[in-house]
Amino acid sequence: xxxxxxxxxxxxxxxxxxxxxxxxxxxxxxxxxxxxxxxxxxxxxxxxxxxxxxxxxxxxxxxxxxxxxxxxxxxxxxxxxxxxxxxxxxxxxxxxxxxxxxxxxxxxxxxxxxxxxxxxxxxxxxxxxxxxxxxxxxxxxxxxxxxxxxxxxxxxxxxxxxxxxxxxxxxxxxxxxxxxxxxxxxxxxxxxxxxxxxxxxxxxxxxxxxxxxxxxxxxxxxxxxxxxxxxxxxxxxxxxxxxxxxxxxxxxxxxxxxxxxxxxxxxxxxxxxxxxxxxxxxxxxxxxxxxxxxxxxxxxxxxxxxxxxxxxxxxxxxxxxxxxxxxxxxxxxxxxxxxxxxxxxxxxxxxxxxxxxxxxxxxxxxxxxxxxxxxxxxxxxxxxxxxxxxxxxxxxxxxxxxxxxxx
Amino acid sequence: xxxxxxxxxxxxxxxxxxxxxxxxxxxxxxxxxxxxxxxxxxxxxxxxxxxxxxxxxxxxxxxxxxxxxxxxxxxxxxxxxxxxxxxxxxxxxxxxxxxxxxxxxxxxxxxxxxxxxxxxxxxxxxxxxxxxxxxxxxxx
Lengths: 407, 140
Ligand code: SF4
Prior knowledge:
- The complex is a heterodimer of chains A (about 400) and B (about 140).
- With about 400 residues, chain A is an alpha+beta fold.
- In chain A, about 50% of the residues lie in helices and about 10% in strands.
- Chain A has 2 domains: about 290 residues, Cytochrome-c3 Hydrogenase, chain B, CATH 1.10.645; about 40 residues.
- A 3-stranded antiparallel beta sheet of chain A has the order 1-2-3. A 3-stranded antiparallel beta sheet of chain A has the order 6-7-8.
- In chain A, α4 packs antiparallel against α5, α5 packs antiparallel against α6 and α6 runs antiparallel to α11.
- Chain A starts with a strand and ends in a 12-residue tail after the last helix.
- The C terminus of chain A is likely disordered.
- Chain B is an alpha/beta fold and about 140 residues long.
- In chain B, about 35% of the residues lie in helices and about 15% in strands.
- In chain B, α4 links the parallel β4 and β5.
- The longest helix of chain B is centred in the C-terminal third of the chain and has 16 residues.
- Chain B starts with a helix and ends with a helix.
- Iron/sulfur cluster binds next to α2 and α4 of chain B.
């Protein structure tokens, strides 16, 4: 066995925009181990959500992640609607899918560009991002902002898509087909891309299932899952499209799947635009009250299934809000994919799952010595009570006290 | 104009540091470098190490873990260094200021030279900020 060296990557480095810390254990050029340390990005969204009303929560979950900034809201409003048994007008469903798919195309283009950048192929980055701007233009036209669209709300969508905007959207999308085909051919023709990506970072279907990986990461290994088809929501049950899969599970196939999905997304967008004409009507059912109960919502984000759970106690805010993002599962597969690779390939392998750390950060406190969880939910409540007590003492206020034992 | 300021404002080497950002400000920063806005034509480039930085771009709120790192990085930056807060998060904490993990206003622990508000600010706003900063540094 050779000498083992550690290459620290991060937390602030040129490789990825988000802070995360990789420890690559290498022997010579070969990666023999990987440690991932997170926690730089934890903002306590689930807790914050309990202090926001249902309408505000949507804005909050939108800011979990800026790239899939419509996936979290869709899953969140679906959870609220599920809890409250709220009906959503059909036109709003089409608009949801439309915005969701536009986002998927822009997210996949973003990944493709960054993948080029990580390979040292900056031309790809610049070209792809140039065309990504066209999508952002559509977003700005429809929603008023390039990112963070604020389109979703419980019961429907916040804004309608105007009939007079549809020709402009169509024209821009038509202009995108050419570039998308160019990228597809560039990836499938370029011998350097083949040499760099084929057989690199392979994940077997068993590993995918073991780790619970999702989205294009799973589909590239031949695991055929997609919540848009498996649990139809928004307008996905009403339009015609296919789930794209591949078989090899390497980085190349992940690129192939994502590019294939862009074409499928364009198909969905076209159909939604056509359906908007034939289904006029309101875009919002304006629910007034969410009765006590529970609800779940999922949505196939560009990186895989996002899942939201909401418990309502009948007030205007969630009593509990739980979020699970796909990168949480996908990032862990890095370890399997990177073992045995060379250091030069590690960058693209670590980027291949399209990791999104701002979605992923969770908190659990453990005692370093014993490995035991030290802050259970009860203890957190106790801590927060202690703080309230202290504040009360400082402010000289009196109030009722929660009985923890009775809960 | 001192030599340091003259050297600083010619071709800005930018180090980008995302705290607990939602990623969007970071993507918009990268966007400003790509062909539509093409900041690189002004000699503005992203660098991989804080030791090469003339400008430190901050995005996102900083939590208890990352704020400490930010202070370390700021100490390591060659001075003078210009610090720009990008986005509502870095400027004021956005929606996360009530979070248990918010470390507090960035300007309480490192000096900030410019604020670019917006969630996320458009690349045009960032370019305007850089232009204003350069003009201010040169005293014109
Ligand atoms: S200011 Fe807005 S876009 Fe920027 S990091 Fe914060 S939430 Fe995201």
